[in-house]
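Hey, can you fold this one?
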Amino acid sequence: MNSDYNASETPLKMPSAAHSGLIYRFEEYELDSSRWQLRWRGEALTVHRKSFDLLLYLLKKRPAVATKDELLSSLWPDQFVEENNLAQQVSTLRKALSRHGSGHMIIETVPGRGYRFAAEVEEASAPSAEAAAAVVLSAKQSITRITLEEELDVGMTDSAPHPDGLFAPGRRRLVLAAAFATILLAAIAGSIWHWLQSRTGGAPVQVVLKDMEGETGDSALDQALRDAVRFDLSQSPFVTVVSTATVSGTLKDMRRDPSRPLTEETANEVCERTNSQAVVRTVLARAGKRFLLTGEAISCVSGSILTSATQEADRIEDLRLAINRLIGHLRSRLGESRRSVARFSTPRFALETASLDALKAASQASILSRQGKFIEAITLEKQAITYDPNFAEAYYDLSAAYTSIADDASARASIAKAYELRNSVSPLNQLAIVSRYSQLVSRDLYEAERNAIAWTQLYPNFAIAWNSLSNVQKDLGNYNDAVEAARKAVKLRPDSSLLIAAYAQEQMRTGDLKGARASCEHAVSANPDYDFPHMILVRLAFAENDSMLSGQQIEWLAKHMESPMTISAEAEIAIAEGRFEEAKRYIARFADVSRKQGNQAAGSMITKLIAREMVIAGDREDGEAFFRQESLDADSPDDTVTLAVLGDSEEAERLLRQEITKFPKDTLLHSWYEPLTEGWRGLTAGRPKDALAALNQPGVLDERDYQVRLLRGDAYLADEQPKAAEAEFQKIVSHPEVDQSFDFTLGWLGLARALAAENNRTAAADAYRHFLSAWSHADSHAALLKTVQKEFSAL
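Sure. Predicted structure:
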């Protein structure tokens, strides 16, 4: 039995004749609940039965959120099904509701809860079954009457002209009949056209892509064109391209060298081993100044050519669009609908730049970024912008590279420029630019999340969209959602060490330390010199108390003294263990390496953050000295918090108000940094109730990390509420996966003090032992260590 149905098929559940139901209209769609039909501009859409039920449920539930549990129980009553079945139905429904061009999201994901119908809806009563039948009967009778009257009038017409000419009774009926026939034919033609546009030629296909053969004579341009072929083919929701990582793994199983280009024989075997249907081959031939592009899909079962296409380019500048047209033809001839090809066919470099030099520089920069070489990538992106000052995509990529080296000010300036130029780029890149702009400039993370979700819905095959969504969800503290989005990004780009390492970071946040370690090892095997996965491995070694892994990372660091990320991780762990003298050396080395690499902003930012931890840990003098030696960043809320920690209350308040005025929509500023700043101001001034008022206001992002919980626990202790303090500290030590650094260590100390204040001496002693165990290698003269030892002895 076919599980898909449309207006002409047997309905899922026929309403009774007396029941009229409702018609829901939204974004030019119309859902008729009495006839179980979904239409767009009058055209019946074929949707899965469960997808229709899901849409109707969400419509009736709106504007409330439908939780995943209630949707599962409603759509699959008395059945046990996996949650991914629901996700699949949502994905299918979103594809069915993808024809409107407004960009508005119809089905919205509410992270951690469920789904919500987000479009504006008009409701109308649907006609009853009898009324609908009467309308059809009346229409049929009218057509019959017009036909009969036309025949009678023709037979009885007098030869003399009617005084009314064209509008004589007989001719009037003839004209009406002709008009009706014309309208009917136009409607039929329109339906056929829409059907042709949406028609697919069979089941989706999976293909192995060979690198483009032939050269332009410019290696950088050749690489850009090869990337464009993969990019254009990977956009398709109908054609799946086997990932480069899968191809490499299959070649290793075949005992072939993955670094060598695929031959026809090896490509065909890879195709068979991956259960694919075809090998796609593209060839670039040059004849004088003109180019001929040829593409073909070859069956790996029979060896026959399934389809082929050609495109010509009169100039080298025209090659980019010629590739896009060529791949579009291949996708269509493989069975993808014309509508789908048109919608998911954004050229890789269609409108972004007219400069080949800019294109080549940007392409090379993209390769370097994927390898984690952000400083080199920034240099090339700047070259691209020099060649073409209006190259919006280069500004976007430059912003991403700056973010990767923690230069937030430069990242904001770059994306602001890209935002100014957004109307010059394709719809896909507009989504990317707007999403990043909302993260960095307007800083409204809830808007950024909505933009990123819309981006993933419209272009589900783009890893960068899923990575963007993961980053926003991470900033909001929604780590379960963030790790799922990161997983999808890695699935789409399994060759990207950057995405794999980012995924490992989110796995670690959700407690999947084993998975995080496997991901890091995968990233290291792909790019041994990339320091991001090594930084995570340093933290994993600390979290798991794995001396062997720790030794391996120290050995790696000794051979890569220029790695600032790993140095910063070592400094954080040294502070978490009370090894301040060692931490100072790490900080000095980190700052020196960062400056030598031209990344002074990152060096300054990390130095100040680590200096704050030193102050909180009791090494106030050295911590403050490190902080004061760096320039104060008026746009950095982290600097504002540190000022409050140091007791510089008035300056912290001044900078906070200045930042709120400048960034009124900044989610983190309002829901994270402002509570932290005000909490520290209250606590350092001896006003714990003021601190608690700031930290307990609605909307505070408690789950982002443990800074808020730690400070709230200390404020409860200062306010002589040890039971409330115990609850906060217990949440920290019960979930080491969220933060394995200094805050987690202090969580045990806070818990020990809260339990001691409750006179629960046995439990307090156990908590003190946890802290002292973590500080077993601490500097013997550390002020906090001496204080804790006295407290423990007093028990």
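Residues 1-20, 129-169, 186-201 have pLDDT under 50 and may be disordered. Let me know if you want another pass with a different chain boundary.
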